[in-house]
Amino acid sequence: MFGNLNDNALFSIFNRGHATMHCPFCGKYDTKVTDSRLVAEGDQVRRRRQCNDCGERFTTYETAELVMPRVIKGDGSRETFDERKLRAGMLRALEKRPVSAESIEAAVERIRQRLRARGERELEALEIGEEVMRSLKRLDQVAYIRFASVYRRFQDLDEFRAEIDRLAQEPSFSPDDADKH
């Protein structure tokens, strides 16, 4: 992690138990934070730093590294959660539908947050599919039916009709309502 640093260099990096950022200008590990602010709607911390050796100032951004649960597929195999697959599935269902890219990205992020909030190390792929269905139902009902037809493997028109009838019985949502649920 720290390359070929000797014990004295490591001691200065971890001075008083805290790691110190190295200066990108002179490479010394003697820097201090001069200002910290929340940015990106509170998801990041922006820090202004100054090198105590050369005096140069620089900015760093800090974000939490949150590990997504592993996915247990239908055949029992396990794989790393892939946000690209989640987004691609939603985009296929939403193709040529009047839903903004911002709404789609917000829905993807809400799904990720809900999955992470479960606090589980592994999740069944079916649970992820159900989260996608809930989000699509709120974003666009046609996209929801498209996704449901593949996800639930509809075999005939009766299954489509039954799902459309169920959907028609539920109160409708606008994309703005998705933030409230």
From TrEMBL:
Cofactor(s) required for function per UniProt: Zn(2+)
Gene: nrdR
InterPro entries in UniProt: ATP-cone_dom (IPR005144), NrdR-like_N (IPR055173), RNR_NrdR-like (IPR003796)
Name recorded for this polypeptide: Transcriptional repressor NrdR
Cofactor note: Binds 1 zinc ion.
Family, as annotated: Belongs to the NrdR family.
BP GO annotations: negative regulation of DNA-templated transcription
Pfam families listed in its UniProt record: ATP-cone (PF03477), Zn_ribbon_NrdR (PF22811)
HAMAP family: NrdR
Organism for this UniProt entry: Chromohalobacter marismortui
Domain annotation ATP-cone: ranges: 69-159
Function: Negatively regulates transcription of bacterial ribonucleotide reductase nrd genes and operons by binding to NrdR-boxes.
A molecular-function term among this protein's GO annotations: DNA binding
Keywords, comma-separated and alphabetical: ATP-binding, DNA-binding, Metal-binding, Nucleotide-binding, Repressor, Transcription, Transcription regulation, Zinc, Zinc-finger
ZnF unnamed: positions: 23-54
